[in-house]
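Q: What does the assembly look like in three dimensions?
Context provided by user:
Components: two
Sequences:
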Amino acid sequence: MVETFLVLIGLQLLGEWLARWLHIPVPGPVLGMLLLFVGLCLRRGVPTALQHGVPAFLQHLSLLFVPAGAGVLLYAHLLNGQTVWQLALALAVGTTVTLLVSALLLAGLMRWRGEHGHD
Amino acid sequence: MTDFASLWQAARQQPLTWVFLTMLCYRLAIALNRQSGGHALANPVGLGALLLIGVLLATGTDYKQYFEGGKFIQMLLGPATVALAVPLYANLHRLSKVFWPLLISLLLGSLVGIVSSAGVAWVLGLDDILIKSLLSRSVSTPISMGIASEIGGAPELAAVFVIVSGVFGAMLGWPLLSRLRLGQDVVYGFATGMAAHGIGTARAFQRSDTAGAFSGLAMGLNGLVTAILIPLLLRFWH
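A: Here is the predicted structure of the complete assembly.
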């Protein structure tokens, strides 16, 4: 577990540092994820330090969102009656459209490629 | 002689009380989720947050005081985001066959995910802070919160929008796509990961391993692309 967190926290800090240094407007942990992904591809495998620690950690990923979920209390004043329904509409439309566009695009492109031979 | 009220006064000053109560609410939510047979509406994040809100309201605790303890749990979201690279890498071999269709669908789907909800909110004339917090609603919570605080949205609102999107997308995905003959594992999984991130991915794994793997892949890549696209889009917008 110690090695797992040394790698994960180390890469997050490195990501934050890179983002600041190179003025990249991407959250540090996302850059850290990219660094780890590239590292795993170069290394062609997941090191033992991460093999067991990461699944155990990610298994309870949901717990880490609970404080933020309760944070809606901070913005209760913005969420009066009408706004709540407008937000619900925005979320429902957005999620449905994203589902449909992603599925139609991928299915269409896969079919198109299938008909145009394989390269 | 100390009475119960003054004991509680001391306990609420102790940050660990809130760490403990957060974990307790989450554990209760997990138990309720199992009892419901893993129903999409009994989502552990949503339920856990609702229970916690109940505790905070019942004890008259303001969020700032709660967060003295809650921040220790939330702090782990950063390392968890980094850790998402591992399941992403585990699905790498599935990529090669459908690389180009996947890449194009990823870029366009990501763009649609960003502008769709925020666009509706903009048309309805909602507050700027609400619109900015809606931009990242289709990626997993840690990334979404990171983006929101980066661009002047509210991370806590972004988290709530992400959770609502995830629960809704996970519920809608299969009934909608299978009816439109888009229910192949690869397509259904990919679209669910794009629109409903981790909550959708958990649902997709219940259909098949392939659907789950592609959902996880779409979730991870979408998070990355969205984190890059939003700041770029805002730069052009202004």
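Follow-up: Chain B has two domains: 4-75, 82-237.
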